[in-house]
């Protein structure tokens, strides 16, 4: 059975991010940019679940309907910033600390100043678990893909169905060799080990990842630190490596960061 896909989209003002001091222009991305990429994802024959704001509900369904996939689509409107106010406030409190940015190499990156960005990325496993708990998809395998994942059509799987026999593990994709580097140094240098744009796990293992991510989040907050999901994924892996299967990605190769549906697909050319 084809892999179920879960994603989310919330407009947190990314179109203005490139105007921050020192920020590169590529950091800006408009709502239209996101939907341009998402339209490609809508071509897939896989079951697709989207968490979003009310104002995007009909547009998302209409895009899937263009490709006659509306029967395999569920859209849920959630006010995650209200539902997770405690976590959002905790992130904000850390970001307001005068010492939080001390030694940070790239302070223009949103994980250092935009609490909503951190919250959305932290909640990826929570979104997946809600899908599982409510029996929304039939597949035993569920993947998180970022809403704007498909930067080009070449990132889509051949045949427009994504299927692959991933093992009963949490599958993470690393771009650096896994070591025991200090978490504070990793945060300050914005070092990325795991890609957060794609995560795959069985329905049995997603709750384990949610538990580990919550543990990682609480650990960071207790130390007056915070980062996006990439660092929390690293912390989760270190806490229970036996639950994970890692896959090295050469980001200099064809496809760069966005290789999963071509390199891990039962249909290969």
**Spatial strand order of the main sheet:** 3-2-1-4-6-5-7
How much of the sequence lies in strands comes to 5-15%
H/E topology pattern: EHEHEHHHHEEHEHHEH
Unreliable sequence segments: none
CATH class bucket: Alpha Beta
What report would you give on this structure?
By secondary structure, the protein is of the alpha/beta class. It has helices at about 30-40, 55-65, 80-85, 85-95, 115-120, 125-135, 185-190, 205-220, 230-240, 260-265, and strands spanning about 5-10, 50, 75, 140-145, 170-175, 200, 245-250. Helix content is about 35%, strand content about 15%. It has a 7-stranded mixed beta sheet with strand order 3-2-1-4-6-5-7, sandwiched between helices. Strand 2, helix 2 (about 55-65) and strand 3 (about 75) form a beta-alpha-beta unit. It is globular, with a radius of gyration of 18 Å.
Short descriptors:
10 helices, Spore Coat Polysaccharide Biosynthesis Protein SpsA, Chain A, 7-stranded mixed sheet, 7 strands, single chain, alpha/beta, about 270 residues
């Amino acid at each position: 059975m084809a892999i179920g896909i879960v994603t989310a989209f919330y407009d947190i003002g990314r179109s203005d991010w490139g105007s921050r001091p020192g920020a590169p222009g590529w950091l800006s991305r408009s709502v239209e940019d996101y939907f341009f990429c998402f339209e490609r994802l809508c071509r897939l024959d896989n079951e697709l679940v989207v968490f979003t704001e009310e104002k995007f509900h009909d547009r998302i369904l209409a895009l899937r309907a263009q490709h006659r996939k509306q029967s395999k689509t569920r859209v849920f409107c959630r006010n995650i910033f209200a539902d997770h106010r405690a976590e959002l406030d905790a992130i904000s409190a850390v970001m307001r600390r005068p010492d939080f940015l001390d030694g940070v190499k790239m302070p223009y990156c949103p994980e250092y100043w935009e609490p909503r960005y951190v919250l959305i990325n932290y909640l990826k496993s929570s979104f997946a678990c809600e899908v599982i708990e409510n029996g929304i998809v039939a597949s035993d395998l569920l993947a998180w893909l970022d809403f704007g994942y498909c930067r080009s059509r070449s990132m889509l799987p051949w045949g427009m169905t994504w299927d692959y026999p991933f093992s009963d593990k949490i599958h993470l994709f690393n771009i650096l060799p896994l070591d025991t580097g200090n978490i504070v140094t990793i945060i300050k240098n914005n070092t990325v080990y795991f890609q957060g744009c794609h995560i795959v796990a069985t329905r049995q293992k997603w709750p384990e990842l949610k538990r580990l991510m919550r543990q990682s989040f609480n650990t960071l907050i207790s130390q007056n630190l915070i980062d996006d999901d990439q660092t929390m994924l690293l912390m989760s892996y270190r806490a229970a490596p036996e639950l994970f299967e890692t896959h090295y990605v050469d980001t200099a190769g064809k496809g760069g960061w966005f290789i999963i549906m071509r390199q891990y697909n039962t249909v290969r050319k």
